[in-house]
Design a protein that fits this description.
It is a single chain. By secondary structure, the protein is mainly α. It has 3 domains: 57 residues, no CATH class; 100 residues, Alpha Horseshoe (Serine Threonine Protein Phosphatase 5, Tetratricopeptide repeat), CATH 1.25.40; 54 residues. The N terminus is likely disordered.
């Protein structure tokens, strides 16, 4: 048949023209999709076979070498990686080891502590306490006891909140002084006890300030007196003296207010608080004089 004699159906359908490609049928399409899916599933497995494996602690060296490598990570502030190395190392050390095992356990606690954050401080606290349970006579026991106190101190809330953990920290620092009086950590513990007492004093001062703002002056006076009596080394004693004098003037106790302002004058002769206290006394005396004058004239 010549081209001129081609049927109309052939001419109108280009897929039937000689040399034209036919579209794939349903079976072919399903085969192609299945093949693509199979390749996608197998590819990760093949890649995993050739991916480099992370080294185990055995491959990193002897237990002592792994321990030293972990200390280097801690020095570089890579605390998480150091903890993993040390925790993987623990099963390789005999339970009766009294040399490397204590050092690894306290290093894990150190890694948690240095990583900061409430959760990490809590884990560090558990680690130091566990160390003291198993190694109470160890040469690092004084440091572990000190770090128990530090872990509690770091978890304590701000001075305007409950201070139960601060009180616990003081108790733990006191144990350092009692159990290891000749240790360098005993001196550090005494310094931390002062810091804890400052925090407790600040808590009491803030409560007193709250009452003062509410004009509950007698309650405020009671709190300020407690600060002066219980925390004589408080670093903000001058502020307490000033606030206490203000409250005493507010309830009309001029003589005692004058005593506390006089003490403030001695402690902070050229300071702003001493100047303000002097002005308050003068204003109070002036107002009292006016009141007496008014009474006499009436």
């Amino acid at each position: 048949m010549s081209p001129a004699q081609a049927s109309p159906s052939s001419a109108s359908n280009p897929l039937r023209v000689a040399g034209a490609r036919r579209s794939p049928g349903p079976c072919c399409t399903a085969f192609l999709l299945g093949s693509a899916l199979l390749i996608a599933l197998l590819a990760p497995g093949c890649a995993a076979k050739h991916a480099p494996k992370s080294k185990t602690t055995k491959e990193r060296g002897t237990p002592e070498e792994v321990y030293l490598a972990a200390l280097q990570k801690i020095a570089k502030k890579k605390y998480y990686g150091a903890r993993l190395m040390l925790q993987e190392l623990l099963p390789r050390i005999p339970p009766d080891d009294r040399d490397l095992l204590p050092k690894v356990q306290i290093a894990i606690a150190d890694a948690y502590y240095n990583d900061r954050g409430l959760l990490n401080y809590g884990e560090a606290l558990n680690g130091y306490r566990t160390f003291l349970t198993y190694y109470p006579e160890h040469e690092m026991a004084d440091r572990a006891q000190f770090m128990v106190g530090m872990s509690l101190f770091e978890q304590a809330l701000s001075p305007d909140r409950d201070q139960a953990l601060t009180l616990q920290a003081i108790a733990e620092f006191s144990r350092v002084e009692n159990a290891f009086p000749q240790s360098a950590f005993a001196t550090k513990a005494r310094d931390m006890i002062k810091s804890c007492q400052d925090r407790l004093a600040e808590h009491e001062r803030l409560v007193g300030r709250f009452y003062q703002r509410k004009r509950a002056y007698l309650a405020a006076i009671d709190r300020y007196r407690q600060v002066l009596d219980k925390y004589p080394q408080y670093k903000r004693t001058n502020q307490v003296l000033f606030d206490l004098g203000q409250c005493l003037l507010a309830v009309g106790n001029r003589p005692e207010a004058g005593e506390f302002f006089a003490r403030l004058e001695q402690e902070d002769h050229k300071g702003d608080l001493a100047t303000r206290a002097k002005n308050l006394l003068e204003d109070f005396d002036r107002e009292q004089a006016k009141a007496r004058s008014k009474e006499r004239s009436s």
